[in-house]
Specification:
single chain; mainly alpha; 2 helices; rod-shaped
Length: 53
């Protein structure tokens, strides 16, 4: 899959590296802004209290 992506990207090697970094940044931003908050709503969080003596 990565090889196919590398062959599809236009330009010389340094441009491809910049394009891959940009695509990775977009994927991470989408995960952080939309996917992870959505998944967090689906996972129940326990109510934990720490008792004192």
């Amino acid at each position: 899959m990565y090889g196919a992506l590398w062959r599809v990207l236009p330009g010389p090697v340094w441009v491809r590296i910049v394009e891959v970094l940009f695509l990775v940044a977009i994927v991470l931003a989408v995960l952080d802004l939309w996917v992870f908050p959505w998944v967090q709503e689906l996972i129940p969080t326990p109510d934990v209290t720490v008792g004192h003596r």
